[in-house]
Amino acid sequence: MTLAVTITEQGLAECISAKEEGIQAWIKWISAGDRAYTPSPTQKTLQNEKQRVEISEYKDTGATSLQCTAKFSGDDEYAIREIGIWLSTGTLLGVISAPNTTLNYKAAKAHVVILFTMDLSALPTDSLEVVVGVENINILIDTEMMKDAVAFIRSQVVQTKQSHMLMQQAERLRQLETN
Predict the structure, then answer these.
(1) Residues 50, 132: contact at Cβ < 8 Å?
(2) Predicted local distance difference test score (pLDDT) of residue 137
C-alpha cells in the first residue's frame, strides 16, 4: 500500500522562506501516532502523537524524492496509523495517514523501523536537507556499496584458495625432504 505525504501549509511556507533566504529547511524528526484519518494541509500536529524520533537514515532518490528511515523503540505499544515529518524548527512538514488504515504496529519493549519515500515535487527545488540522528541503522545500502562488498568477498575467496594451495605445496615439500 502506498500513501502520499500531505504537505502542510506551514511546512510549505517554511520551505519557501528558506529557499528565498538562500538556505534549506531541515527535516529532523519522524513521529508516529495511533489515529487514522485523512490528513489536512492546515494540520499543525498529529491527532495523537505517541512517539517522536530522529531520522535514522535517508537516501536521496532523485531530484523530487527521498527515502527516510526511523526506528521507534521503547515500552509503549500502539498501532501506527499516522506518521508526521517534522522540520528542525518544530514545524510539521507532512503527514501520512488514511481512514481505517493501520500503517504498522509498535509492540511493547520492541523496535519497529519505518521506511517511507517522500515525494518532494510540491516543494521548492533544493529547499530541504535531512538531519540524521546518532542511530544510523544502514538499511538503505547503496548499490555501489554492495558491489564493493561483493568484490571484497570474492577477493577473500581467491586469497583463501591461494593460501590453501601454498599449504598443500609446503606439505608436499616437507614430505619429499623427509624421504
Answers:
(1) no
(2) 60
Which of 130, 150, 167 is where one domain is finished? 130
User: Rounded to an integer, what distance in angstroms lies between the CA atom of residue 18 and that of residue 14?
Assistant: 6
Quote the cell numbers at residue 7: 504537505
What are the grid coordinates assigned to 95, written together? Answer: 503527514
Nearest Cα to Cα of residue 86 among 167, 160, 25: 25
CA dihedral (78, 84, 90, 92) positive or negative: negative
Q: In this structure, how many other beta carbons lie within 10 angstroms of the beta carbon of residue 33?
A: 23
Residue type, 168: Q
pTM: 0.74
Q: Would you say residue 65 lies in a domain?
A: yes
pLDDT in tens, 12-43: 999 999 999 999 999 999 999 999 999 999 99
The residue whose grid cell reads 519497529 is: 112
Please give the residue range of the domain that contains residue 124. 6-130
